[in-house]
């Protein structure tokens, strides 16, 4: 007869999470903490936008798993930051699809050595939290910072689109991904025909209200007047992990692998606002 081979230790782990249908937020009737509900991205985003604080309180006790919408037949991705901002734990992306969302994902989890787990800040663990990422009030989450980034120069930026015969025309884009009002993006001018040692010497300032939830993405692209700009490389770091001073940022490829020598040279300054 066929015997199912199953390690008892593995089988025992099944008790850790029990999948249940989400029945709405009911703070007065806490469910056992091993209960986990699944939400499509659309449903989760609606809850995050309309009842962010309730979702945060729910996620301080229960696990939430978010999955990409069925209409994403091209395996594109949604922005995971909106889900993390309300404390969702298992924010599933299409890992096979590279792009900004996966860059942010990789950036978020490098904070804890890529073990796949980072601790939520206190205001997302609090069962009585008053935090709402859509409407920032005073609280432990609001620690206003001014981030000054001076994009100085680039080193050995590769030509990504080998089909074109011109030399790379690089530009750096600095992006903030966090709560809605902290989201921002600034870009340098384009340097013509120099991927070897472009020099920008441009300074940008960002106001960040909720630094604990912000990530900073440094992206370098090859400007093109006639077609879409080509992605060259990027690096994303959680804001609290940024080190101040003069830094070489080692760029990652579209697939998230390090380039052997492509870097940008920046100066980072963080002030209390
Ligand atoms: C770089 O910019 C600073 C102002 O931010 C300016 O004082 C300095 O002269 C610039 N350096 C060069 C080499 O252009």
TrEMBL record:
EC number: 3.1.4.11
Record keyword Lipid metabolism present: yes
Keyword Hydrolase part of the UniProt annotation: yes
Gene3D superfamilies: C2 domain, Phosphatidylinositol (PI) phosphodiesterase
Catalysis: reaction(s): a 1,2-diacyl-sn-glycero-3-phospho-(1D-myo-inositol-4,5-bisphosphate) + H2O = 1D-myo-inositol 1,4,5-trisphosphate + a 1,2-diacyl-sn-glycerol + H(+)
Enzyme class, first EC level, given as a word: hydrolase
Domain (PI-PLC Y-box) ranges: 10-125
Ranges of residues in domain C2: 125-253
Keywords: Hydrolase, Lipid degradation, Lipid metabolism
Name recorded for this polypeptide: Phosphoinositide phospholipase C
